[in-house]
Amino acid sequence: MGEAILWGAVAAAPLISGAVLATLRPWPPQWLGIVLGFGAGALMASIAFELWEEGLDLAGPLPLAIGVAVGAACYYLANRIVEKRATASAGSQGAPLAVGALLDGIPEQLVLGIGLASGEGVSVALVIAILVSNLPESIGSASDLLDGGMKRTRVLGLWAGVAIVCMLATVAGFALADAVTTEFRAAASGFAAGALLVMLVDSMVPDAQSKAKDLTGLATVLGFAVAAGLSLAS
User: Fold this and answer.
1) In total, how many domains does the chain have?
2) pTM of the model as a whole
3) What is the spatial distance between Cα 155 and Cα 185, in angstroms, rounded to a whole number?
4) CA separation (Å) from 217 to 23, 27, 39, 140, 225?
5) How far apart are CA 103 and CA 37, in angstroms?
6) How far apart are CA 219 and CA 196, in angstroms?
7) Which of 127, 168, 183 is nearest to 8 (CA)?
8) Rounded distance, CA 33 to CA 212, Å?
9) Count of other CB atoms within 10 angstroms of residue 218
10) Range of the domain at 25
């Protein structure tokens, strides 16, 4: 259990670290767009080389496809609720990224905890890949929330809450490892992939494009290449 707590904290740390970085200084819009583009590319690699491949290897296409559909629908509905409640002073662009991080982080770290309980190791490359994808996401969201007028304490509290919930998901996965099937693990990977795909198309990439303009594509490809290389190395 101690190992699950440790690795859960390591995997979730980039979420709160990015929010802290965003509060230390204002990020120029172009820089922020480049960071978001890099993070979007890293998340695309995570979907392709970690979530999708792992789901197929575990239980084949059907549980994975079901998970993808449910994850996409859950993100869409959750984001619609957030958008209705968001005001101009609350940073409407930042909230969808936080929702995406939560819906991605819970199943992803749940699977991490299950893997630890099953005796699977955690490579340094995989941990770095998680950092590369999660850090830009939290920086971008926190910066948008701050620009929208949300207080620093609330932004940090929001992302600390997301990080804690994701860390607890690792612990829950470790505790429930004996009770879950490979189909469940595949569906959980698919759920995270589906939520991320909708978030990327609806929020992260458009936000990056509006800030970084022509540099967005280059930043996205660079993020994809770095994260893909780390994923393959793991």
Assistant:
1) 1
2) 0.87
3) 31
4) 26, 20, 12, 17, 12
5) 20
6) 18
7) 168
8) 4
9) 14
10) 2-233
